[in-house]
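task queued by scheduler; priority normal; single chain, no ligands, no partner chains; default sampling; output format set to C-alpha cells
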Amino acid sequence: MTTEKHGFEAEVSRLLHMMVHSVYSDREIFLRELISNASDACDKLRYAGLTNADLIKDAGEFAIDIRLDKDTKTLTVSDNGIGMNKDDLISHLGTIARSGTSAFMENISGDEKKDVNLIGQFGVGFYSVFMVADKVEVLSRKAGEEQGYLWSSDGIGEYTISDAEKAGPGTSIMLHIKDDAEEFLEVMRLKNIIKTYSDHVTLPITLISKNDDKDAEEKETSEKVNDGTALWARPKTDITDEQYKEFYHHVAHAYDDPGMTIHYRAEGMIEYTVLLFVPSQQPMDLFDPARKTKVKLYVKRVFITDDCEDLLPSYLRFIRGVVDSEDLPLNISREMLQNNPVMTTISKAVTKRVLSELEKKQKKDREGYEKFWESFGAVLKEGIYEDFERRDQILKMSLFNSTEGDDLTTLEDYVSRMNEGQDTIYYITADNLAAAKRSPQLEGFKAKGIEVLYFVDPVDEFWLQMMPEFDGKKLASVTRGSADLDDKKDDEKDQENAPELDALIGVLKTNLGEAVKDVRKSNRLTDSAVCLVADDNDMDMHMERILKMHNKLDGAASARVMEINAENGLIKALASQAAKDGSVDALKDASLMLLDQARIIEGEVPEDPVAFAARLSKVMEESFK
C-alpha cells in the first residue's frame, strides 16, 4: 500500500490551528456540514446517473448513515454518493478553495476571540470537524472507478493519502472524538442536532449505535432520525421560521439568516413549487467573474442540477433556494434545459415574482430594503443593461446617495425635488462615495441648490449607456460638457478681470499643448482652482479609467478640458502674472502643476511624478526664501 504525505496550504494550516484549539460554543455545526456535504454527494451521483446509468446500477437507495461507537470514541458519517478520487481529496480537503474557506480567511483578524466567532458565520465546511476531533479519516471511492483512497489527518499541518482496496462506493468520514467533545457520542445529543439542522434533508438519515441492552438479539440499534419530506412541498402553514432558516443554511451552505423568504406553488398549464431566499449577507462568491446562479432545480422532488443558468438571470445570482417542476422530464440533461419552453416559462415567472417581492419590500419595509440594497444593489443593477424587458422596473427600484443628505433616494424621489425649470437629472460617477463627495465638480451645483446623485458602483457606467433618460428627464454627468450654471451677476463680475483671465487661458493653452483638449473658465467651481472635465462628445472620465484598468481601452486616453475658477486666489494671482511680458516661460511650471493638481483631484497620478515632485520642491523652496 502506497502512502503519500502532503502539507496543507499555509492558509488552511492557519485555519486548522484555529479549529483544533477552538472553544466555540456551537461546535455542533460540524455535523450539519457533514450531512449537507453527504446530501450534495448523493444528489450529484443521482444527476450523473441520468446520462450514465452504469454509475448508479449498484448504488441502491441513496442514504446517509451516522454510526457512533463509544468504545472507540468514533463518529462516522457515510453516504453512497459520488465519492472522491485522489485528486478530489487533495483539491477538496487540502486547499483553500472549498467550503467558504477563502472568504473566512479574508476576515481573520488575528484576534483569537474575534476569529472564533467567525466560525459561526462561515462554518467553513469540512474543516469544522477539527473542532471536535483530534484525528479524521476519510475513506472514499469515486463512482465509476475501482480504486479507493484513505485520507487521514490530525489537523496539525499535513495529511496522508493511501490506497484503500476495500473502500466501498461513496464516502465515509470517521471522526476520533476529543475528550472534551464526548457529548457528540450521545444518541440523544446527535438526534437533537439532526432534527434541528437537517430534518428537511430528503435522504434518509439513519443513526446507528451499539445496543445498550446486552440481552437483545441485535447488537446494534438503528433509527431513521429525519422527517425527510421536502420542505418546499409542505404547506406554508406547517413550516416554522426556524425550519425555513435551517433549510436556508442547508441549501445555501450559508450561516447568516435569510433576509427574505419567497415560498409559493404555481398551478395551471405548468406546475412548479418555489422556495427561494434572499440572504442577509453577501455570499462569498457574489462577485465571482463566472456570475453563476445557485438555485437548485428539482423535478418531482428529484435533484437535477444547481448549475442551471436558464433558471434565473445572473443579476439575481444572490438568490438561493429550490425550484421544483412537475412538468420537466426526470431524465432531462443540462444541455436539454437550454431553450426549453417549460424552463423559459418558469424562469420568466420566477424572475417576475422575485422582483415583485423586492418591490413590495421597498414600499412596505424601506429600512429592510435599504439593508438589502447595501448588499445586493450593485448586482441587481446589472439587470438594467442586461434585461431589456425589466430595465425600467429595476431602475425604479434602484437606490442612490445624493448631495441632498445621507438618506438613499430613488430617481422618482429625485424628480419630485427638482428645481423649477430644471429638466436634467445630474449625477457624478466615482470609485466610491467618499471620492464622489470630494469632487470639485460638485461645487457650483451645491451653490445653486441643484441636487446631484452619486453613482459609485462600476455597473453604473454601463447601464447609463442604455438609459440616457428617466421619466422624460435627461441624465447628465456633472463631469462632462459645460455646466449650465451661468449667473448674470457672475458674468458682470468676470468682465472686470476678463483681459487678465483671457491672457492666463492663452498661457495655459500654450504651455500644456496637446495635454489638454481646451482650457476655459469654469461655471461649476466655486472654491477649487482647477478641475478636468470630459467634452460633450467624449467618454466620461470615470468610465475611461474603468476600461483602462481592465485593459479594455484601445489607444491613449483622451485629452480633457481643463476648467479654471476665476474667483480662486491662485488663479487670480496667476492671471495677473499672465498679462506681463515673458509670462509663457515664467508660468511654465505653474501651468504643469495646475494640470497635475487637477489629475490628483480626479484620483489619478501625475503623468511624470518625478518632474511633479521636482517642480513642487522648487515652489516650496522659493516660498521660504
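post-processing summary
- The chain is about 40% helix and 20% strand.
- Residues 3-224 form a domain with the Heat Shock Protein 90 fold (CATH 3.30.565.10).
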